[in-house]
Specification:
The protein has 33 helices and two strands. By secondary structure, the protein is mainly alpha-helical. Among the domains are: 227 residues, no CATH class; 62 residues, no CATH class. It has a two-stranded antiparallel ribbon. Helix 3 packs antiparallel against helix 14 and helix 23 runs antiparallel to helix 24.
């Protein structure tokens, strides 16, 4: 679960520049991706990039002259509160060192530090209250009212015995927190008028806060003091807080407020290069404001500025919650037509045009893009698919799948809120699988979908294909269970993974070989091919399955006695109900063993599009219909268990507690899903076992009595 709170908190440490954001919650379950149910409106889309990634791709316009200092953010901290704590810690540390040189008496030093600490802690507490108040303003109203602003800091006194620059700075800080800007400025300017050797520790602090104090009242003066902060840092004045780097962001805010968007974006990008923790969100919101507010003249300036142009393009591709309207995107794309952008930008510009639905403009930019650029190739494939040219598109997508960059930071989503489907080589493999399925190339389609559902060998150090979290395994499972014939599936598995698979390490998901062998085992078992199924089961399920198979054999063996038939059928019935998902469950629909049976993701054939590029062909649907489980119901093995209980009860005597238990159990197993089907168990119980305890309970209830049931599967 996540909210916008971290995003907002980061901004409050260094930037406040747009309308309030409303927090958005996005909670699980996090279900797997399923390409086979995508309509063309989704299948032919390109995903969204992340602005953080795109911004890092843009070279800094100039070297960062200073490095930012990142505070340590605790579990309960926002960036703003962490910065307040960091300021206090550095202030106290530097004071202690200064006093060692200025005050020889240890007891007096200790007294001064204690008094100073009390004042500093009061200022820190007020700073944190202001951060929390601003955060509430951004997060929305409280009881339909804006939260009340905290009162000014309480009356505080500058302790005696402080070195002059510390006394001046503290006097200004107290006045600033008491909403007395003129008094604060006077104190800080007094500090800066001291001889250079008497203000080595607090000169950058004073200049920086002078800039902060003038932000609204006098932007030009604020800018002058921010520039002075950087000059002082260059001259060697202490800057352990990284105020010189932070001043870049504040000056960028001034440019943004004045409509100098290109300059603002350059400065924020330089701040990002400096490593400022607030720079990513500052840059994102600056790009948003640029895209949403810039007039034609300002857009033209950004288009001519390489840094601003590439940042705006990156924003147009981003999966931001603040996504702008298509008209806004179109206006920017029209402005970009006038620039002779370098080839390395062309694929991104084509991507943005494609997202905006301007396919002709996308084709124009693609003509300028490098032929082998993976995104350009993917775009060309999508445009071919829109024209119905599947054969021509497939090789391009295959190239993307083979050569797409494996940058761990390149996390690009097909969802505006959650990274539920990643834009990378695995997505390309999934598209290949869907297209080959449409062409009737069933085994090749399964192979491609497995490549999408599992990391290939060698990726992230994996010696075998390993299951990934956001995948197309349900698509591959549907192919294996319903589209391929049993003979085709067995041949496919035997050729790829002919040998038993050792169990995975603790906490690890089984790899593709184990998953596919297990899927085949259950399909064989559902078809009654019990002996053939045994070696394909995982080692930890083989004994269970052997007991199940042996119980079935006893129950159906004509050479067995009636008690042996009853014992076998009843044992098989109970095991089918209690371990049916593990022994017989379908990996895809209707049982959804892939989701542990916890979620019903629907019927794949019903959800398959019936028209468009990603449509299901009649032959595919006919194959799937022939390979559905029997019965074709959710948790189908419960019905199998009920049927086995019925068969056992048919061999048992009337008015028997054992018979009553078998009938009540069988009916209970299905009554919540199929009351009509359970009715035969109730009627048989009333007719045959009315004198038993369970029969009497049924008569009183006029329905099947409840029994303790095993965990739902």
């Amino acid at each position: 679960m996540w909210t916008l709170r971290p995003l907002v908190s980061a901004l409050l440490g260094a930037l406040t520049l747009t309308a309030p954001l409303q927090p958005v919650n996005a909670c699980g379950p996090f279900l797997p991706s399923r390409i086979l149910i995508e309509k063309d409106s989704d299948f032919l889309e390109l995903p969204y990039s992340t602005f953080a990634y795109e911004a890092k791709r843009v070279p800094a316009p100039y070297p960062a002259p200073f490095r930012a200092v990142k505070p340590t953010v605790g579990d309960s901290d926002t960036l703003g509160t962490a910065q307040a704590k960091q300021t206090e810690a550095i202030d106290l540390d530097e004071l202690a060192k200064a006093l060692e040189a200025a005050q020889p008496d240890p007891a007096q030093r200790q007294k001064i530090v204690a008094e100073y600490t009390a004042v500093r802690q009061a200022l820190t507490a007020h700073a944190q209250q202001m951060v929390e108040w601003k955060e509430q303003l951004w997060s929305g109203m409280v009881d339909d009212k804006p939260p009340p602003q905290p009162a000014p800091a309480p009356a505080l006194t500058v302790p005696d015995g402080l070195p002059g620059e510390f006394a001046d700075y503290l006097r200004g800080a107290i006045a600033y927190r008491q909403n007395q800007p003129d008094a604060a400025r006077q104190a800080w300017q007094t500090l800066l008028q001291r001889p250079a050797d008497q203000r080595r520790n607090r000169s950058t602090w004073a200049a920086y806060m002078l800039g902060r104090s003038y932000l609204i009242e006098n932007p030009a003066e604020a800018r002058r003091w921010f520039q002075q902060t950087r000059e002082l840092a260059k001259e060697g004045y202490a800057d352990r807080l990284g105020l010189a780097a932070a001043s870049l962001g504040w000056e960028a805010q001034l440019d943004l407020a004045q409509g100098h968007y290109a300059l603002a974006l350059e400065a924020f990008r330089a701040q990002l290069e400096a490593g400022d923790a607030s720079a990513p969100i500052s840059l994102l919101l600056a790009a948003r404001r640029t895209v949403g507010k810039a007039n034609p003249e300002a857009r033209a300036e950004c288009v001519k500025n390489p840094t601003a142009r590439r940042l705006v393009t990156g924003y147009l591709l981003s999966a931001s919650l603040l996504k702008d309207s298509p008209d806004t995107v179109t206006a920017w794309l029209d402005s970009l037509k006038t620039v002779d952008a370098p080839a390395e930008d062309a694929d991104r510009l084509a991507w943005a045009a494609y997202e905006a639905g301007n396919f002709e403009l996308a084709r124009g930019w693609l003509a300028k893009a490098p032929a082998q650029a993976p995104i350009a190739q993917w775009l060309r494939a999508k445009l071919l698919l829109r024209d119905g040219k599947v054969v021509e598109a497939l090789p391009l997508i295959a190239e993307v799948a083979a050569h797409f960059p494996r940058d761990p930071e390149f996390v690009i989503s097909r969802d505006l809120i959650e990274d539920t489907e990643i834009f990378d080589a695995r997505r390309a493999q999934a598209e290949i699988g869907a297209l080959r399925l449409g062409r009737g190339e069933y085994v090749a389609a399964l192979d491609a979908l497995l490549q999408s559902a599992f990391n290939p060998p060698g990726v992230a150090g994996n010696p075998v294909m390993e299951r990934v979290d956001s995948d197309h395994w349900p698509d591959a499972a549907y192919m294996a269970e319903q589209v391929l014939t049993l003979a085709e599936l067995k041949e496919f598995v035997d050729q790829r993974w002919p040998n038993p698979v050792p169990p995975p390490a603790e906490g690890k998901t089984p790899d593709v070989d184990a998953q596919m062998r297990y899927l085949l085992a259950r399909r064989l078992a559902r078809q009654g091919m019990l002996e053939a199924a045994v070696p394909y089961y995982p080692a930890d399920q083989q004994d269970n399955f052997r007991r199940y198979a042996e119980a079935l054999r006893r129950g159906n063996n004509p050479n067995m006695t009636r008690p042996q038939h009853i014992e076998g059928l009843w044992a098989a019935a109970q095991q089918t109900r209690e371990q049916g998902m593990e022994l017989l469950g379908t990996e895809s629909d209707p049982d959804w063993a892939s989701e542990g049976g916890s979620f019903d993701l629907g019927t794949t054939t019903a959800a398959r599009p019936k028209e468009g590029v990603n449509r299901a062909a009649p032959e595919e649907l006919a194959r799937a219909a022939r390979n559905r489980p029997n019965p074709d119901r959710r948790f189908h093995y419960r019905y199998r268990a009920a049927d086995l209980a019925w068969q056992a009860a048919q061999l048992m005597p009337d008015q028997s507690d054992q018979t009553a238990l078998a009938l009540v159990s069988g009916g209970n197993w299905i009554k919540n899903h199929d009351a009509k089907g359970a009715e035969r168990f109730y009627k048989a119980l009333a007719q045959r076992c009315g004198k038993t305890s369970l029969g009497k309970q049924a008569a009183a209830k006029r329905w099947l009595p409840d029994l303790p049931s095993p965990p739902a599967k």
